[in-house]
Amino acid sequence: MSRIRIIGGDWRSRLIDVRTVKSLRPTPDRVRETLFNWLGQDLDGKRCLDLFAGSGALGFEAASRGAEQVVMIEYDPVAVAALQANAKTLQATRVQIVRGDALKFARSANQTFDVVFVDPPYRAGWIERIAPLLPDLLSAKGVVYVEAEYQIDNLERLTRIKYGTAGQVYYHLFAPAA
């Protein structure tokens, strides 16, 4: 087990536990800092969805920065147990952890979100499968953050508005196409 630090908001500098799970890669601090600069440091009133929660780095960071609601979807039971333990430790009352499949959740979601985080396991084709569902998950001014092992120019009905790289990580912010 390892630990990662929340970098901003109410839980700034708090550590969360990360269990050893195959294909789990917590988003690096530098990338999270850039992402939350793009989103604005204050997420008050925002509804966020973390489709491949893994370590919970993105979802807990959003909750720390005031998101009204954070829904974390994770399939792996070991990762889910760690997410639940971290939520309890942080007293994260605005965080909902769902053990389930990201595709099934996205197909059946009955609400929209202001920010959707997509950081799936690499080399498994998840981005291609989830991309058609993303626009329907967004509120009117919603955005999608995608982390991948390759650069993405555009996704279905979404336009890339920002991107960067850190080592072998390509990270992107998308908004609905005009």
What would your notes on this structure say?
- The protein starts with a strand and ends with a strand.
- It has 178 residues and is α/β, with parallel strands linked by helices.
- It contains six helices and ten strands; from the N terminus they run ββαβαβαβαβααββββ.
- 28% of the residues lie in helices and 33% in strands.
- The chain is globular.
- The strands form two sheets. Strands 5-4-3-6-7-10-9-8 form an eight-stranded mixed β-sheet. It has a two-stranded antiparallel sheet with strand order 1-2.
- The model has no long low-confidence stretch (mean pLDDT 92).
The quaternary organization reads as single chain
Number of strands: 10
Q: Could you tell me the mean pLDDT?
A: 92
What's the alpha carbon Rg, rounded to whole Å? 15 Å
Widest sheet: strand ordering? 5-4-3-6-7-10-9-8
Name the helix and strand elements from N-terminus to C-terminus, one letter apiece. Answer: EEHEHEHEHEHHEEEE
Identify the overall geometry: globular
How would a crystallographer describe the biggest sheet?
8 strands, mixed
Low-confidence stretches: none
Instruction: Please bin the fraction of helical residues.
Output: 25-40%
